[in-house]
Each structure stands twice: as structure tokens, then as C-alpha cells.
# Entry
Amino acid sequence: MGEVYRAHDPKLGRDVAIKVLPASLSENADRLNRFEQEAQAAGALNHPNILVIHHIGLHNSSPYIVSELLEGETLRDRLAGGALPQRKATDYALQIAKGLAAAHEKGIVHRDIKPENIFITLDGRVKILDFGLAKLTVATDGLESQSNVPTRKINTSPGTVVGTLGYMSPEQLKGQHIDHRSDIFSFGAILYEMLAGKRAFRGNSPAETMSAILREDPTDLSETNKTISSALERLVHHCLEKNPAERFYSARDLAFALESVSGSPSSSGQTTTVSGPTLETDSDTQTWFSRFLNSAKLWMAIAGLFLLVSVTWAVAYFNHSSSDSRAILVALTTPHDLALNDTGPDSAVISPDGLKVAFSATGVGGKNMLYVRNLDSVEVKLVPGSENPLEPFWSPDSRSIAFGSNGKLKRSDLNGANAQVLCASARMVGGTWNKDGIIIFAPDYRTALLQISAQGGEPKPIYNKNGVSEVEQDRFPYFLPDGHHFLFYRNPGGIWVGSLNSPESKQLVADTGVAIYGSPGWLIFLRNDALVAQAFDAEKLTLTGEPIPIITGEINRSNVKRFSVSDTGVLVWQPQWQRDYQLVWFDRKGKQIDAIDTPTKVSVGQDPYLSPDGKRLVVKKEQNLWVIDLEKGTGLRLTSTFSQIPVWSPDGNRIVYSRGALTLKSADGVGDEQTLLERTAYPASWSPDGRFIIFSETGVKTRMDISVLPMFGDKKEYQLSNSPFDERSPQLSPDGRWLAYSSDETGDYEIYIQSFSAEGKLGSDKKRVSTSGGKFPVWRHDGQELFFVAADGSMMVTSVKTGGKEFEFESPKPLFKTRLLQSNFHEFDVTHDGQRFLIGTRIGEPTAPPPTVILNWTAIVKK
# Structure
């Protein structure tokens, strides 16, 4: 896209290259933008395997870039002679991978990796050229100096293919959202070509080439070159997976893999941030080796090899000197039959002695439980009685762990016995345990902090400055070293410190997230998607200096705690997990017939809800509610603050939703919001006559309960249920006579039906409809069918009769398997005739990123 000249810099006495965009073409805005983007993207990088940019300027209306002068040839020229020797190909590939890793870590995706953009100098060094198609993403380290390059969207709207055919990833061809894994696919195509002497994907026409990339695998390398090692061939195939989630997690991992295959030692000499699915050591070779075994799923050998890695790590850890200035980052693995849980906060917590991690995970049977793993062992132990664990926290001696479970605060002593129930706790929102055997915990979002003996008993309130337990927005307590003062998070944002010995409390930091104490004298907390540490005197309760980033560029909500720290310098961090998600239309056989919008990254669903006339849709997008006209395809933003769980009024003119309070607004966006309840509540259904809004909320001593808000008279809300069980997703039948909901009173969620009177009361005629689990009931518009989702994800239907004195129904039948995003609220709706289903659908098979374990984390802030 430009002309390149050889020039001499007299000031520095060096030859350089000048790339000029002719003035006749500089008026083309797209070409000029691409030129500027190349300069800015490459200029943000400083790596021996990336072309060095010295300067960017404008001369006689012609923009130009001054870069280092390279002498040699492109990889395309080198490949003109056919396949390269395996040693040479892996050498070039390793250099490319390291260059890509450097770019990706600064948030830059190349998007046009091909042999023409790979330059080989006369001394064998590899340089990546042409970042003109680079797409800047969030920098992984978050440093300002590396994130000041403006993001530009150059010809990248959905449906537009940008790149070079033959080396583009499947997601790139589809015009979908891409990330660094797209470059890894292109890299795999180049490495294949270097080894095979022919392109991985090439048809007789562009259409055939695109079809090959999307649907076919290239010919095995071993068929074209018998000398290719099987390990290298597996590595290439791993890069060329169609699903991005199945490729190497990062270019850094890819470089580790290549080093192992080639036998070359790591030359970086630096601590590496690792985000892959295995526990890794300070040795780069061992790091990749455990990772590669996991990706290749060689489960027959993993136990012994993993033990070797763990022992090596343990030796390095226990011999770790306090004078060592390095922080070592490793990733925590789990057995392949356990899926790390991402639905609850703080799913991985390090023990105070730094030797054990407790984490929540879902097993083969679908049950979410708490597990404990010693970091110097491959063995993972189940904590009995830990169903649906919430907010686990350790005892000071690291011998016991407490957690929320099915509406109770429980304690387990890690001796194999069943967990001991300490007291009721509707929905744990943080806890902490001091050396005197006192536990402080937040039993629910709607209650104040309580204290209880670690042996159990009756909880007592933690008094605020007024001497009474009035504050209901205090969460995530954390004891300071003296065992009397404690940190806590007050919603909305702010870190405070309180005391067991005084009713007074003090604010430490305003407008920030959850905090913990890190020895020897640090306050660790969330700020702007970064985990930071600030010097803190725990005796004087004062902060000094400025917050220092520990981990940046990750996504986390400020009111969720997903990090923990030991007394010995070990920190565990788990970012919020985002999945690929799309609202998809399915027929009754499960065939996809249409979609709304393009796939997007989400951590929670969009709460789709069709209007009563079926012509509009209300959804949550980027934390706001939008009303979509399904016929015109236009959208109207309804809210400007965090809002969720929308429900239409029967006439379709209003929408009630949750924004920390139960709120009502006109569906056309006209007028102000109306607050119906000044507390957190989740609307679920509106009676057909408009007289009642049915909603859910967490009870003070129970779990999720069902309540009613009359829209007439004194409009005083009241409860329909307050059992010790979890009751969710209440849905009134179209005639308003029957209430369907899910409850876990049997131990698993099932669908139940009870009559609902004209006075807004429940009858005693409860019937269980589902037989194999059930959540999220939805009625057909005429009331003749009831749909719900079974425990295995199947969309179920039962024919019903609602006109008589008793509710009649047939045995539920499966329609098709869904790929619902895991949620506590509805992620699907059904058209009036019951023939089409709009479902918030997971795309691909994503897996939760493993928690990161940082050894000697204080070295990061000291540096």
C-alpha cells in the first residue's frame, strides 16, 4: 500500500527504510487510516521479531514511516524453493510466535499474518511486518504507555472479510469477532506451509479455499514428509482448530510448545504470565510440557508427569528465598472431569499458609461442589456437604474452611467428615475468620454484617456507629492482623474498616471495589478492571502512596471478590469469564432458523423477553435495557444505568425491571422511571389483568422467595412463599389462575404448579410437573402448553389444561437440547403459537480460564 525507499539518517549514522503513501492516494480515508494504524500499532511495540518503527510524519501531504532497514527476503520468497528443513522451520516459527506474543500482550492482533508479511534477514532473524490491518484490543498489562494507541475500526463490520484468503481464520472469514487466537490460526497455516511445501488451504477458486478453511482439515504432514515429528504435527493441528477455544490459549504458550519440540531453551530469562489450563513451574520447558499434555488430552500419562511438575514447583517454592526479586505466575489445574465454576464469586481461595487452594467446580453429575487441592500434590479432595458453595474462606490455621451452602453457613475441618452447619445464611456475600474463633459474615444482600462463633450458635449483629445494625449494604468482611479490626465493602462502592470493639467505622477508599489485606502491609483491591495494591498501615489504619497494579486488563465487577492472598506471599486471582453468546431462533426440532444480532462476548445473559403482541423484544445489552422492533430491526435504549430482568405489562405499554430497586418505565422510553420498591427485587411475571406483579427476592433468613406487589390499593407487597428452599422464576398462566415456578426442595430443581386466586393468594394444591429436573417455566400464549428446561439442558414441553378446578398435565416430553447460558433467570422465550424459541445460546465450547497463582506477589509492587 506504499512505496519503500532506502535512506540514510545522518544524525545517528544509520541506514533506514522510509515507507511513503503517495499524495495521490492520501486522500483515500480508508487507505490513510490503515497507513496510520500500521504506524501506531507497530510503533507501540519493541521486540526483536517485529519491525522497529523510528518515526512517523507528513511531507508534502504524503504520510511516511521511518523504520529500521531490513536486508534479506520475505518468507514467501524463501518458500519458492519448496518445504524448509524441520529445524529451520521451527526456528522461524519460534521467532514469529515470540513476536506475536509481544504484540498480543500489548493488545494488538495482527489479522494478516502471511508469508509476505514475514521477513527473514541475512543473519536469519525473523521480523513481522505490516500492521496495517491490526486490530487494537485491550492491552493485557494495562500500562498507560502501552494503551495510548487509539483503537480504530477499519473495515471490520460484521460480514466484511478483512485479511488474506488462505491464511484467515474461520471466524475471520465469517466476519465475526476475532481476538489473538485468529493470529494463531494464521500462524498454523504458515508453519504447515513451511513444513509441507504447500498451502494448508487452497482450492481451485476463492470459494473452495474458504470452504476448506471452514470445513476441512489439511492433509496430514506425515503424508507429505515422513521425517516430521509427531509432536510438531500435533502442534500444527492444535493451531488450526476451527474453534478458537480449542487452539493454543496464547502465542506465549505456542512459543513454549515450539521450544520444547525444537529442544531450544528459553532465552527470555523473565517471569512469564501464564493463563493456561495447567499448573506450571518456573521452568519454561516444564511449563509448556504440562500445558501440552493437557491440550492433547494424554490422560494416561498426565498423573505421573503432573506429579513431577508439582513436585518441581513445590521444591522451588519451599526453597524460595525472601531475597528473590521475581514473582512467579502459575496456573491452577483441575482434573479433566471437573469444570471450574464461574457463576459464583471467589471460586478459588488460597489458604493462609499458602499450601492449599479451595475451589468450586462442577463434576460429571452436574453438581457444583467445593474441592481442596494441596499445591504440592496432584490429589484433589471433595469437601463433603458443600453443595452449591458460596464465598469459601479459611480458618487462620488453614485446617478448616467455611462457606455458604444451600442457605446455610457451614464449616468443614478437612478431615473427611461431613460439613457442620453453623447457622442460616440465605445467600453468603463474604466471610472472614480470626484467631479467636470468631467469624464475621454477610448472610445476604439485604442484611447487615453478623458475627458468630466458629463452633456455631446464634449470630449477633456487628454494630455500626449508631449502635444498631442498620446498614444493609455491608459485604465481604476481612479481618486485619489484630483480629479485631476488619475491612468491608459498603455498597455503593467504598472500602471501610470496622471493629469488634467499637461501633465506629471509617472509610479508607471511596468509589472502588472489594478489598483484602496482604502481608506485610498492603491493601489489595479492585479499581477500574485492575487488581492493585496500596501501602497500608494496619495499626494506624492509614494508606500511603499510590495504588500499584498487580494484574491489569482483566474484566471483573467491583462488587465481586475473585482474589485471595496467603500470609506467605501467595496470591490467587481469577478473572470474570466471558463466553460467546447469541440470541438465536429455533424451531420445535431444535433447528436454527434465524438469529438476532451477531455473536458477542458476555459474562451474563441478556434476559430476552418478547412483548405480548410478539412484535418487540426487550433485552439487556451492556448493562442497559433495549427495546427491539423485530419487524423493523430498530432498537431503543430504555435505561441509562445498570438494569436487568425486564418484564412486560399485559398491554405492552410498560416494562418493570430491576436496577437495585423494582422499577417501572414506559416501553417507548418516554417519561421518568418510577420506583416501586426501594430494595433489590427481581420481577418475573405480570398478571394478565395487570393487578399483580410477581417477583423474587432473597429472604432475610431463607433463600430466594416469591412475593407479590399489588398495583392497586395501598400497593403493599407480601410474600407468597418463604420456605427454606430456593424458589425461582415464578410465571403466571395466561388466564392468571396458575403459578409455575422452580424449587429445589427435593435437592434438585423441579417445576411445580400451584393455583393463584383473584385475591393474589396461593392455593394448597401444589403439583410437581417435571421428573428429571426443571428450571425456567414459560407458558404458551393460549395456556395449552408449558415449556421448561430439564437438568440436562433439554427443552421440555407438557400439554396442560388450566380451565378446570384442578390443573391437568401430561408427562413432559423433550423437544431438543439447548445450549443455554448458565443463568439464574430466563434466557429464552416462546412465540404465541409455541413453534419458535428465542434462546440466549452459548457459541462454541468455552472453558473457564483457570485461576492464576502468583508466588512472591509483592515482588511485582516492589519493582
